[in-house]
Amino acid sequence: MRSSLSIAFFLSTCALLLPEASATQTKPRICCRKLSAKFQGQGKVAYPDTANYLAQNKYWSESSFLTPTCIFSPSSANDVAEAVRLFSRNSCVFAIRGGSHMPNSGFSSTDNGVLISLTGLNKLNYDASRNVIAIGAGNKWTNVYNFLDPKNVTVLGGRNSDVGVSGFLLGGGISYLSNSYGWACDNVVEYEVVLADGRIVYASNNSNTDLLRSLRGGSSNFGVVTSFTAKVYNVGPNASGRVYFPESSIPQLFGPLYNYIVNQQAANPKYHIIPNFVKIGTAAPRASFTQFYAEAIDLASPPPVMNQWINGTIPLQSQAVVNRQDAGGLAKLFGADAPPANRSQWHVTSIIADAQLFQDIYNIWLETSQPYETIPGWFNSIAMQPIGTKYVEVSQTSGGNALGITAPLVVVSANVYWSNASDDATVRQFLGILFKKIKDAAKAAGKESKYEYLNYGAANQKPIASYGRESLRKLAKAKRKYDPYNVFGTLVEGGFKIPGFQAIHG
Ligand SMILES: Cc1cc2nc3c(=O)[nH]c(=O)nc-3n(C[C@H](O)[C@H](O)[C@H](O)COP(=O)(O)OP(=O)(O)OC[C@H]3O[C@@H](n4cnc5c(N)ncnc54)[C@H](O)[C@@H]3O)c2cc1C
Fold first, then answer.
1. What is the pLDDT along the chain (506 residues), one digit of tens a residue?
2. Could you say which residues form the signal peptide (predicted)?
3. Whose CA is nearest to atom 46 of ligand 1?
């Protein structure tokens, strides 16, 4: 049923569904029991120490591992609707897990309630006549690429195929194709969503347009998304790979990087680069620039925009750009290549492009990390990713998103891996200090940008607050309309919240 919402109907329905109205009560055992009764014999509710539970309770990063009271594994939107209705009625805390790649503890798991694990929502329906694919919310990008690659078409998805479809699309989504088609979320044409009262609604440019806009960056604040219908593009063979630069070459990278962002990015939409700097333990740092070109190239004479990094003018350690048959080939390589992390934490900010500031940020990162690099398992990287004009253009023509970006910027994100829980607090302290210094440097250079990319945010950041006043006003309006009792702000304890609708637990 595709319905436009009537607020009056919605409020009266919720009043019926939330007789206790106190979302502060935690009754996970009751909800687990009720779920077990409702889905009896279907194997959809798993309890600790059972094989099913252990198989489901897996996360990209060990630091996000918690022990839900039970794990519910729906196989349809109707199952999700039954469960969410039950949680709302009984004020049960719950968490929603897509691909479990966000390392923030308590975001896609819970110690305090029921985990909805979406893995069973794994449909993939390609409609060649409309150039779209409906993707079940429990898929990882690997499944999507494996399905589409043989057809020589693709979607805007994760650059590491192990990432989950859901969290990625609900936070924005930077894809290898984003310089052509913008944020991945702006290429989603329809969302199927279970609201707090258990109704299943659809958001598109024809229906519930305010919900469509809100889900593009609004994360888990509006409902459980059960399916995404995304645009499909004809991309087949492509050129891709990584180039590594030694420490001595790093100072030579920032001028060309600035030149690429300002003068070449918009003119070369098929090209994508991930400029990243890596420090493993006490070993010397190196730069790793991932390259992608959305068509096969003459490897003896690559397009200049790519060649500038791989022709040796800036001395390099190694490079591995090859032609691949599959659009998802590089992402699948990285997905298979990168095993789940021991412990992991991201942190993020953004800046306006500036060659000297890139160098300064690199220096700050190197210097600030130095005292921490003997932490066991230390892997520390910082990326400077340009969000170009195309992202802004597409967001204006696709029905809008919540991100509030009106001009190009550079997302600066750090990603740290380490081994022991005893170092968790130290690593988080390091990231706090590092980003304070980076923000100060950007401010001093007059290149400050407020935007924080949600998908790289640390739990103590407030990325949605960074979207700006106009976006927040629209998000708050949509929130009052679609989740008037703030079930997804209170019963869903983890996740990034809309200011004014914060969780009251945890
Ligand atoms: C190795 C690695 C590579 C990455 N590569 C990229 C990249 O190329 N581009 C990029 O933009 N980002 C990238 N990211 C970041 C990634 O987009 C985020 O971590 C994203 O949240 C992962 O989605 P998920 O479904 O796996 O996460 P989860 O941890 O399952 O979910 C993240 C958040 O979304 C909520 N959520 C999940 N599913 C739903 C749903 N169906 N309905 C409502 N709420 C939901 C969860 O409750 C949680 O708060 C990468 C991360 C890692 C670790």
1. 344 333 333 333 333 344 333 444 458 999 999 999 999 999 999 999 999 999 999 999 998 899 999 999 999 999 999 999 999 999 999 999 999 999 999 999 999 899 999 999 999 999 999 999 999 999 999 999 999 999 999 999 999 999 999 999 999 999 999 999 999 999 999 999 999 999 999 999 999 999 999 999 999 999 999 999 999 999 999 999 999 999 999 999 999 999 999 999 999 999 999 999 999 999 999 999 999 999 999 999 999 999 999 999 999 999 999 999 999 999 999 998 777 778 999 999 999 999 999 999 999 999 999 999 999 999 999 999 999 999 999 999 999 999 999 999 999 999 999 999 999 999 999 999 999 999 999 999 999 999 999 999 999 999 999 999 999 999 999 999 999 999 999 999 999 999 988 764 43
2. 1-23
3. 108
Distance CA 89, CA 22 (A): 10
Task: Please tell us whether the domain made up of 7-118 is placed in CATH 2.40.160.20.
Answer: no
Pick 238-466's CATH classification: 3.10.20.880, 2.60.120.260, 3.40.109.10, 3.40.462.20. Answer: 3.40.462.20
Cα 184 from Cα 204, distance rounded (Å): 15
Question: Nearest C-alpha to atom 6 of ligand 1 is from which residue?
Answer: 158
Please tell me the residue having the least CA distance from ligand 1 atom 8.
Answer: 159
279-315 per-residue burial string, b: 16 or more CB within 10 A, e: under 16: beeeeebbbbbbbbbbeebeeeebeebbebbbeeebe
Residue 160 CB–ligand 1 contact under 6 Å: yes
Stretch(es) of the chain classified as CATH 3.40.462.20 = 238-466
